[in-house]
UniProtKB/TrEMBL annotation:
UniProt KW keywords: Cell membrane, Membrane, Transmembrane, Transmembrane helix
Organism: Arthrobacter livingstonensis
InterPro entries documented for this protein: AA/rel_permease1, APC_superfamily
Record GO terms (molecular function): transmembrane transporter activity
Lineage start: Bacteria, Bacillati, Actinomycetota, Actinomycetes, Micrococcales
PANTHER family attached to this UniProt entry: AMINO ACID TRANSPORTER-RELATED, INNER MEMBRANE TRANSPORT PROTEIN YBAT
Protein name: Amino acid permease
Mode of membrane association: Multi-pass membrane protein
GO cellular component terms, semicolon-separated: plasma membrane
Compartment(s) where it occurs, according to its Swiss-Prot or TrEMBL record: Cell membrane
TM helices/strands, residue ranges: 106-129, 141-161, 168-192, 212-232, 252-275, 295-322, 347-366, 372-392, 413-435, 441-462
Length: 490
């Protein structure tokens, strides 16, 4: 990657420290909400174990990403690492390594981007149930669409003024989101509402068998959990915006990881411990609501819903920022049209923000948060599989041997990266596709493949655009040289 591309006009501003990066990423624990009732449907109380193992998988993967964030401090997180590492010297008309890196970044973008739609749908559903007068006037779809429009517009205005201001909002929303999550994770244990027999008596489904059908389900469950429990890698997205990336990126990553581990395990334990597996399955969309009612009563439940809806704005903010940085990174690398790399004077990639908002307003029309999540998880899992293989390449390729690595993963970590890269692709991808076919049908899979496949013509156009710009630049340089030579002669 040339310094010119990194330090040109449309560059990001170094304006935040690790605490601000962590605050933006602290929306990640909320990603458990769509799956609190989904995982027990297939693995009963063993969902608690799945969450714990998945967050530990996040530590394995994010240790590799922390090394990459400090080795390549001028690129934006996972999509930036993959594009930089897979890129090779241009050979022929099209660069296959550049295409692979761009596709990895596009998959990552599609993994994060639909979070805006997913949580807008959840907000619409909560509003529909919380305020009966709204339910009489509007459908859940209409409420979701209006909620999405209001939230996206508000966040666009806030983020127009730069990431530092977005991080300030992140501090406020982080407190709002973590308070109800921590209370709902801890209070049921403190008040004695958790029955351990609800967990130990239903550890695995009674009909579970270790055959191909159930093994594919298990891979799919890990893929869905991976979408939530490993997403704190987004703290590495802000490498070009950290004041001291060699220290800020690892600190932000691992601080988020520790918080996620305790909240993911405790929240699922709390929900199953209070309601039992059957009670969770009776409330698959919002099992935290009956937990709040059991512990705090009706008034407490209403307060919890309001706080959770406010918290959902934080995870939408996290996804909004992360996916816009992915598009900015791809544009700067020549893997998306240049317009997506444009920033305003505050360093905000505003064109990317507008496109993301419009795309998610369209996704809301799917109407089912699980369907959107099922499509998104395919892109997210592909992105991490290919990104971890890119990390392995960076450890073996002599082209990267001399790079300074301020933070180094333990010796032999490339084999850890290889294991989880292959675990994600193909095993978890196949599992998610299989799980989608059982629960939701084939629509999410076709949507995922359509969006991912659309990248090929977009990338080809980007290469045409780059070649055209290069020809213009070469013509301009030639004209300047001719003018200079003419002046010398005269």
């Amino acid at each position: 990657m040339s310094e010119k591309r990194l330090n040109g006009d449309d560059h990001l501003k170094r304006s935040i420290d690790w605490k601000q990066g962590m605050a933006i990423a602290l929306g990640v624990p909320l990603l458990i909400l769509p799956s609190l009732g989904y995982l027990p449907l297939y693995v009963s109380a063993a969902a608690i174990l799945i969450w714990g193992l998945s967050v530990l998988q996040g530590f394995m993967q994010n240790t590799a990403y922390a090394e990459m964030a400090t080795t390549l401090p001028k690129v934006s997180g996972v999509p930036g690492f993959a594009q930089h590492i897979y890129a090779e010297d241009h050979q022929g008309r099209y660069n296959k390594g550049k295409l692979l890196g761009g596709f990895t970044a596009w998959s990552y973008w599609f993994g994060w981007n639909p979070i805006l739609a997913i949580f807008s749908i959840l907000v619409g559903g909560y509003l529909h149930g919380l305020f009966p007068v709204l339910g009489e006037t509007f459908t859940e779809y209409q409420l979701s669409l209006m909620a999405g429009g209001v939230i996206f517009t508000g966040l666009f205005v806030v983020n127009w003024f730069g990431l530092k201001e977005g991080a300030i909002l992140g501090y406020i929303l982080a407190a709002i989101s973590l308070i109800p999550l921590v209370i709902l994770a801890v209070a049921p244990f403190a008040t004695g509402h958790v029955e351990l027999s609800n967990i130990t008596g239903s550890w695995w489904p009674t009909d579970w068998a270790w055959d191909l059908h159930h093994i594919l389900i298990l891979f799919g469950v890990f893929g869905i959990a991976h979408w939530s429990a490993c997403a704190w890698e987004t703290a590495a997205m802000y490498g070009p915006e950290y004041k001291n990336p060699s220290k800020d990126a690892p600190k932000a990553l691992f601080a988020c990881g520790i918080i996620c581990f305790f909240l993911f395990v405790l929240l699922q334990s709390s929900v199953i411990g209070v309601l039992g597996v059957d009670g969770v399955l009776a409330e698959p969309v919002s099992p935290l609501i009956p937990v709040a009612e059991a512990v705090f009563g009706q008034a407490g439940s209403m307060i919890t819903i309001i706080l959770l809806m406010a918290a959902m704005v934080l995870i939408i903010q996290t996804a909004f920022l992360g996916s816009s940085r992915a598009m900015h990174s791809m544009s700067r690398e020549g893997n998306l049209p240049k317009i997506f790399g444009h920033t305003n004077r505050h360093g905000t990639p505003f064109v990317a923000l507008l496109v993301i908002a419009a795309f998610n307003l369209a996704l809301i029309s799917m109407g089912n948060a699980s369907a959107v999540l099922g499509a998104s998880a395919i892109g997210y899992t592909i992105a991490h599989g290919l990104s971890l293989l890119a990390y392995v390449k960076s450890k073996k390729d002599p082209a990267f041997a001399d790079l300074e690595r301020p933070f180094k993963a333990p010796k032999g970590w490339k084999y850890v990266g290889l294991f989880f890269g292959l675990f994600n692709v193909p095993l978890c991808v196949v599992g998610v596709v299989y799980l989608n076919s059982l629960e939701i049908g084939w629509a999410p899979t076709w949507v995922a493949f359509a969006v991912l496949g659309a990248y090929i013509p977009i990338w080809l156009y980007s290469q045409h655009e780059s070649r055209r710009a290069n020809r213009k630049a070469a013509t301009a340089r030639a004209s300047d040289r001719d003018a200079t030579d003419l002046e010398k002669v005269s």
